[in-house]
Amino acid sequence: MTLARSLPDSPAEWWFYLGVLALYLLTRWFLAWRQARKEHAEHPVRAAFDDEEPGEPNAGFAALGAFRSYRQLLGFVGGAVVIVAVSALAEGKLRLGLMCTLVPVIIILLAYLDFRRARTYRLEHART
Asked: Residue 122 in 3-state DSSP?
């Protein structure tokens, strides 16, 4: 007898994991697009896709890997733990209810935290 779950067997479970990633990316893009509109960018969609240029210096957050603060790092780790726990431990209607309520809220909050930190970092370095 084993208590560990195997990798997802059905395509629906894999679509869930892809949906989590897609929700994060769409939320992040939407926040960047909305910020570009507030700043009266000529092409907000293009500005949203160019939100984080690959040539940006990474010295400000090299100590934390790709994360710019410990709060952001702990948020992503905690969010991942909750999402994996919900998908691994819950079954049936409880799992569906948590997937439709708790998980999207966590993903949207993490995308907002990531966007806010990136915007703050960019504004600080634009002044210097």
From this structure: helix
